[in-house]
Design a protein that fits this description.
By secondary structure, the chain is mainly beta. It is built from 2 helices and 44 strands. It has a 21-stranded parallel β-sheet that branches. The protein has a 12-stranded parallel β-sheet with strand order 3-6-9-13-16-19-22-25-29-33-37-41, with no helix packed on it. A 5-stranded parallel β-sheet has the order 10-14-17-20-23, with no helix packed on it. Strand 1, helix 2 and strand 2 form a beta-alpha-beta unit.
Length: 416
């Protein structure tokens, strides 16, 4: 009887699988490849990413299979190619040396370039973007982790610095930006054309005289993101623990458990400009300054609860519409929920001056377990005023923003 060699059979199946995926003109990267230009099969695969990128033409995909690829200078992507992790970011990492005088991992400038399914780690920059400098193109399905930016850079973005392009479905985790820069321990969004969507921005940190340990945004849009656990290093000059929203739009996101010293534990506005925070849940953030949840700006259909600040535990200043600002704490013992600002169709206590505001209990389903949806008959149900952006818009759960159709929207981030 012939004995089956299971190990050999598995190896042959893997090789056949790889062969089946090989496409003419695409490039391949494998630590055990033959390193034979032009790298157009797994057998001839390049053993480093730089070689494959340099050989690729517009429209081609570079397939990078499992392993940790240590780089000796940044990977520069200036043409319309895709750099694709073959088995996703949990299996394939691109790693720099991470030390002072080192280099970032990726520089991407073509509007049609894509980096997909990689872990990007240990990058360092003395200019901008420790992990990625994105001047165009898309970064998707990636983990950007433990990258750093030097102090005194003037720019920012420990994980990513972007002037354009899209970051989508990525985890931006445990990155660091030094002090005396624009900010953004996780991401610095320095362009109006930049978009961050469906991402998790967690546990990033920032030095002094900066803002936005999670994200610093001066233009652009942040949408459907989870922003949590970002913090400063205890410096009294850092604001906007989750997001420093100088300008631009933050929408349909959860901002929770962030911390900073100078104001806006969850979100803070710029010194003289005003971004929009819309359709967001802002809870459990902390600041030693004013505005435990949000410090100023334009605030629409947000639920702000369970935050803590020295004053104005919920919201400090701002123009507030269709919002719930309740059950926040000011450690100074006064103005627990809000201080100043202009309110309309909102729920806060004491009842703010303005149009159709209420101080009634908002009627959360179960705030102690983090469920800030509204119960039937809650005062915020149908208590808002319809705004132009609501046509076709969704609430934080993905339901129509106005229910029933033709009716009136609810206060807060959730439609009942």
């Amino acid at each position: 009887m012939r004995r089956c060699d299971t190990g050999r059979a598995v190896f042959i199946l893997v090789v056949l699988s790889w062969a089946a995926t090989a496409r003419a003109a695409d490039k391949y990267v494998w630590l055990s490849g033959g390193n034979v230009p032009p790298y157009e099969s797994w057998t001839d695969a390049a053993t480093n990413i730089h070689a494959a990128v340099d050989a690729a033409a517009a429209g081609e995909t570079i397939w990078v299979t499992n392993g940790i690829y240590n780089i000796t200078n940044q990977v520069v992507v200036t043409n319309a190619i895709t750099v694709q992790g073959f088995n996703g970011s949990s299996n394939t990492a691109v790693r720099a040396n991470g030390s002072a005088g080192g280099y970032r991992v990726f520089y991407i400038s073509n509007a049609n370039a894509v980096v997909d399914g990689l872990t990007i780690t240990n990058g360092y920059s003395g200019v901008a973007g420790g992990g990625v400098y994105l001047a165009g193109g898309t970064v998707r399905n990636c983990t950007i982790v433990t990258n750093s930016l030097a102090w005194f850079t003037g720019n920012g973005g420990g994980g990513i610095y972007m002037t354009a392009g899209t970051v989508t479905n990525c985890a931006i985790v445990r990155n660091y930006s030094g002090g005396y820069c624009n900010g953004g321990g996780g991401i610095n969004m320095a362009g109006a054309g930049s978009l961050v969507v469906d991402c998790s921005i967690r546990n990033n940190s920032l030095g002094k005289d900066s803002s936005g340990p999670g994200i610093w945004c001066n233009g652009g849009t942040i949408r459907r993101c989870w922003i949590s656990g970002n913090r400063d290093e205890g410096a009294a000059t850092v604001s906007g623990g989750g997001v420093s929203l100088i300008s631009g739009l933050l929408e349909s996101s959860v901002i929770c458990s962030n911390n900073c010293q100078s104001g806006g534990g969850g979100v803070s506005r710029g010194p003289s400009t005003f971004g929009i925070t819309r359709n967001c849940l802002v809870f459990a953030n902390v600041t030693a300054g004013a505005g435990g949840g949000i410090n100023g700006g334009i605030i629409e259909n947000c639920t702000v609860s369970g935050n803590t600040g020295l004053t104005a535990g919920g919201v400090n200043g701002g123009t507030v519409t269709n919002a719930i600002v309740y059950f926040n704490t000011a450690t100074s013992g006064s103005t627990h929920n809000y201080s100043g600002g202009a309110y309309a169709r909102s729920c806060a206590t004491p009842a703010p001056a303005g149009t159709d505001n209420t101080a009634e209990d908002p009627g959360f389903a179960d705030a102690t377990s983090g469920n800030y949806r509204l119960r039937p008959g809650a005062p915020g149900v149908d208590g808002g005023t319809n705004l132009p952006w609501m046509t076709g818009a969704k609430d934080l759960d993905g339901n129509d923003r106005i229910l029933p159709a033709g009716g009136t929207n609810d206060m807060g981030a959730y439609e009942y």
